[in-house]
Design goal:
- InterPro entries: ACP-like_sf, PP-bd_ACP.
- By secondary structure, the protein is an all-alpha fold.
- The protein has three domains: about 1-50, no CATH class; about 50-145, no CATH class; about 155-295, Non-ribosomal Peptide Synthetase Peptidyl Carrier Protein, Chain A (Orthogonal Bundle), CATH 1.10.1200.10.
- Helices cover about 60% and strands about 5% of the residues.
- It has a two-stranded antiparallel ribbon.
- Strand 1 and strand 2 form a beta hairpin.
- Helix 6 (about 105-140) crosses helix 8 (about 185-195), helix 7 crosses helix 8 (about 185-195) and helix 7 (about 155-165) crosses helix 10.
- The radius of gyration is 24 Å and the shape is globular.
Length: about 300
């Protein structure tokens, strides 16, 4: 503190502001815990607002892309409108040193541009780019890392894909969380699944709404059934059974393991189906009841 030049005072002031912000946020923790609890159980005004379809179906899946690309979008916008690249030295590694010198209407425009670009990346380009990257690696290495027979059941497909991604032993009882899947590897998983089921509507949120590979298999199987009913033309093998380890020998398992549990969580399908204009399984309850025997491997 013996230095009194302007540069040091400006730097010290910036650091002091961050320290105050850090301290005050900790002081507010008791009140924020109550608010966070309300969000966790889905109660309160904030939870109600955050449950809006625009946020849940579109913006939430694209939120990570918004975080990653908001400054890049701004810098390209600055170059396009000002004729120079916006790049100033930073006092801190993770933040820009000053507020963006743009008008308020430009901020709204940039917000829309960033959100739209992030949504396009999430729902149109991510899976394609991951698929191309995987094909490039396979071409360069000369190895096909994932070969799945056309007659494989949904459960068999998922077991092989998840095991290939995580490198661990996977069966229908394996917990998705404990298998090693994360927010990043879930994107790879979705891309791999869509390689096998081209018309499938699936998001990262769907993966973390279920607990086990068997439950995820039931979710994917019902999505495929709904796609076929809506003209997708896909027919999947529901009769093939796989073996899984149990406490007393080996037990039989098929794609219907958690069909009833999946029905209780049909709101997950409702969110995803909104993107393709498909009907909810709850709207076709009688159809689902009559078709559930297919999931049990019975002849209809």
């Amino acid at each position: 503190h013996g230095m009194r030049d302007d540069d040091f005072r400006m730097y010290s002031s910036s650091r002091g502001t961050r320290i105050w912000a850090y301290t005050l946020s900790r002081i507010l923790c008791p009140a924020s815990f109550v608010w966070i609890y309300g969000l966790a159980v889905g109660e309160g005004v904030t939870a109600s607002l955050m449950s809006h379809k625009l946020l849940v179906v579109w913006l939430a899946p694209a939120s990570y892309n918004i975080y990653l690309f908001h400054q890049a979008t701004y810098e390209w916008y600055w170059l396009a409108t000002r004729g120079e690249y916006w790049a100033y030295p930073r006092d801190f590694y993770w933040f820009s040193p000053m507020y963006s010198p743009i008008d308020r209407w430009e901020f709204i425009l940039l917000l829309i541009l960033t959100s739209v670009m992030s949504i396009i990346l999430e729902f149109r380009l991510n899976s394609v780019l991951v698929e191309w990257s995987a094909l490039l690696v396979q071409t360069l290495t000369g190895k096909d890392s994932l070969i799945i027979g056309k007659e494989a059941s949904v459960t068999e497909v998922l077991i092989q894909i998840i095991g290939n991604i995580t490198g661990g032993e996977v069966d229908a009882e394996t917990s998705l969380l404990e298998s090693g899947l994360s927010s990043i590897t879930s994107l790879v998983l979705i891309a791999k699944i869509k390689q096998h089921y081209k018309s499938l509507v699936l998001t990262s949120r769907d993966i973390f709404e279920v607990d086990t590979v068997g439950q995820f298999s039931a979710l994917v199987a019902e999505r495929l059934q709904q796609i076929a009913k809506n003209g997708g033309g896909y027919e999947f093998n529901t009769a093939t059974k796989i073996n899984r380890k149990g406490n007393s020998g080996r037990q039989q398992h098929d794609d219907s393991t958690d069909f009833v549990a999946l029905r209780r969580n049909a709101f997950v399908w409702a969110d995803a189906s909104a993107m393709n204009g498909m009907s909810s399984p709850l709207d076709e309850e009688s159809d689902n009841e009559s078709s559930s025997s297919e999931f049990r491997g019975e002849t209809v």
